[in-house]
Specification:
200 residues; alpha/beta; TIM Barrel; six-stranded parallel β-sheet; 6 strands; IolE/XylAMocC-like; Xyl_isomerase-like_TIM-brl
Length: 200
């Protein structure tokens, strides 16, 4: 088991400074949540060779490991343009994970489309069913890439997503049927996961 720091509250620091602080705080691993200079929310990763090199050097210098990356893209969007962008971003993120020796990707099932668009949608196209279908299309593309690269993806059912409860999330993960895909259990969200967690 790895005890990792999610340095989200320190994202104003540069990546090298974040590595230094992580070690000073007594952690040996980082779970890198979205930040503007690496894996940004919803958009293309802000990553290029020099940034990867300096980040890797800082990790080594401060004897800190990258336990996981936390990409957040709209892979469950029923809107084709948003979904295509999300898949492109996921493919790039998988490349980055390999370059950074990050074995684990942690994400969520997702809320579907962008909130601005889905809130105004009166066509009926933004439903839980449509979001799930988009998610399955994403899995068809991404799971073979994850398996090929030896990466693990752990997905969380999250409050306000199209999938919030743990029991159907586990059913979906089992249906994916890949050693590369797991289900995250997030303790602070237990109240949202179902009425009988022992049974779930």
């Amino acid at each position: 088991m790895k005890i990792a720091l999610d340095p989200y509250m320190h994202r104003h620091l540069s990546l090298p400074e974040m590595c230094r602080l992580t070690k000073e705080l007594g952690y040996d691993y980082i779970e890198l949540s979205p930040r503007a200079d690496f894996l940004q929310w919803w958009t293309r990763p802000r990553v290029y060779p020099e940034r990867i090199q300096s980040f890797r050097q800082a990790l080594k210098q401060h004897d800190v490991g990258l336990a996981s990356l936390q990409p957040m893209y709209r892979w469950s969007s029923p809107y084709r343009d948003e979904w295509e962008v999300a898949i492109d971003n996921w493919k790039r993120t998988i490349e980055i994970a390999v370059e950074m020796n990050a074995p684990l990707l942690v994400s969520e099932f997702g809320r579907g489309g962008s909130p601005e668009r889905s809130a105004a949608d009166r066509s009926g196209s933004h439903t839980a069913e449509a979001c799930e279908n988009a998610f399955w299309r994403s899995m068809d593309i991404l799971v073979p890439l994850l398996e090929r690269e030896g990466l693990t993806l752990s997905i969380e059912p999250h409050p306000e997503d199209w999938l919030e409860r743990i029991d159907p999330a586990v059913e979906i993960i089992k249906t994916i049927n890949s050693p590369a895909v797991k289900c995250s259990y997030i303790a602070p969200h237990s109240f949202y996961y179902g009425d009988d967690l022992a049974e779930s």
